[in-house]
Amino acid sequence: MIDAGLYRDITDFAWSQQWFAGIATAFSEYGVFLIVPVFLALLWRARTRGLAELAAIAWVPIAVALALVVDTVLKSAFAEVRPCRVVPDVHTLLPCDPPTDYAFPSNHTVIVAAFAVALLLVHRKWGIWALVFAVLMGISRVYVGAHYPHDVLAGFVVGAGVALLGLVVRAPLEKLAARLIPVLPGRKA
């Protein structure tokens, strides 16, 4: 792979920083679940702010789900073996996934990139924080040895690309929300 040398440099550095291993692996493996409470908080906030914001917030989990579908298709099509199985004598912080759990693109990165960009379309301040979170997640996936850098970059492209469809589907989602939820608190019938 073109970035195998960079992958090795990053994983060697990570291996030499054992004091940080627990934090990095916990964040890399489970940090993706932090998007759930953020989404629930936004949903709670949107319930009184009108159909446009509710429809926009609804796009966030839809974007994540669609991005995962695209990711699954791409993983099957490319079938790129994890770098920990290809790069000789590499030390990773996480155990290497099975040979059939492909690397390209990074699932974790797809999820957080879709979340961050979809959120950015709704709420700029929260979206910027989510983008920072997505970048850190992507870096962590290489740091722990789960992905090549290009797997993470592809994950960003896939997740962000799917989330940007929100610019097109926001109006139809708002119309659907108006039919399904005729009266929101604070809104006249």
Task: Describe the protein.
- With 189 residues, the chain is mainly alpha-helical.
- The chain has a single domain (4-178), classed as Vanadium-containing Chloroperoxidase, domain 1, CATH 1.20.144.
- The chain has helices at residues 4-16, 21-30, 35-46, 51-78, 83-86, 107-122, 124-143, 149-163, 166-180.
- The model has no long low-confidence stretch (mean pLDDT 82).
Summary of the model, kept short:
With 189 residues, the protein is mainly α. The chain has helices at 4-16, 21-30, 35-46, 51-78, 83-86, 107-122, 124-143, 149-163, 166-180. The protein is 70% helix and 0% strand.
Structure keywords:
189 residues; mainly alpha; Vanadium-containing Chloroperoxidase, domain 1; elongated
